[in-house]
Amino acid sequence: MNEKQIREEFKLRLAGVEDGTYCFSVCCNKEFFELAELDEIQDGMLNLRIEMVRYEKLVTLSFHFEGNLVLTCDRCLLPVNLPMDFNSHLVVKLVPEVEEGENQDDDDMWVMEENAYEIDLFHYVYETILLALPHRIVHEDDADGNPTCDPDVMAYLNQSSSAPQEQETDPRWDALKNLKLD
Ligand SMILES: [Zn+2]
Question: 140 CA distance to ligand 1 centroid (A)?
Fold first, then answer.
């Protein structure tokens, strides 16, 4: 898919859509992450199910994201596979005319002109995925509580972080060494 085709996938048509419930399925894959410049995501895929309920001048959107993302481990810098499963909601109020600044008040409540042709969710989806990412990403510890990070990288990190500490000596021992026994 080219860039235009990917962006098209995130546009839901409003014009001529009658009151009712509609379901959509979109795939957020590597092409999408690259296009959205979600650089922290190396690879993976999220299936996104969108349920749209239109009732008069109100459009309620429920999003369910599910899948796997490949991110970079903060500790060893190698890829981490992260299962994802999260929801979000968005309410769109349709008005005859949007006043300036009205649409920027709330991330979960949009105001759009009632004759708008479509809702573009590309940016919303990108922001929602970004917010769902954990702040710290590391390989999980195994059952014994040992890190499952790359052993070579960990050995290197341990070596470089413990080296300066070995040179430090405990001042109490220094004091004892300097004690002269008569
Ligand atoms: Zn790691």
Answer: 8
Is 157 part of any domain? no
Instruction: Supply the pTM of this predicted model.
Output: 0.80
CA–centroid distance, residue 43 to ligand 1 (Å) = 16
Cα–Cα distance, 13 to 121 (Å, whole number):
11
Summarised one tens digit per residue, pLDDT across range 109-135 is 999 999 999 999 999 999 999 999 999
The SS3 call for residue 55 is: strand
Instruction: State both tokens at 139.
Output: 């390989």
**Domain of 106?**
3-132
Q: How far is the CA of 167 from the centre of ligand 1 (A)?
A: 28
Between the CA of 69 and the centroid of ligand 1 the distance, in Å, is: 15
pLDDT band at 100 (very low <50, low <70, confident <90, very high): confident
